[in-house]
Amino acid sequence: MSGSPRLRRSIVASTALAVLAVTSPARAAGPTTTPPATTTSPTKGHASTPPSSSKLPHAGVIGPSTGTTPLAVIVDATLLTPGSAALTVSALGWQGADASEVDAPVVGVAVGVAPRFQLGASVPYTVGNDASGVTGGWGTTYLSGKIGIVQNDEAGVKLAVAPTIQVLGTGVLQSLTSGESRVQWGLPVSAEIDRGGARVFASAGYFSGGIGFAGGGIGVQAAPRVALSGSFSHAWTSDASTATAGVTPVRTELSGGASIAVTPRVGVFGSIGHTIATADANGAGLTIVGGVSLLAGPIGSQP
Question: How much is the pLDDT for 197?
Answer without folding.
Answer: 85
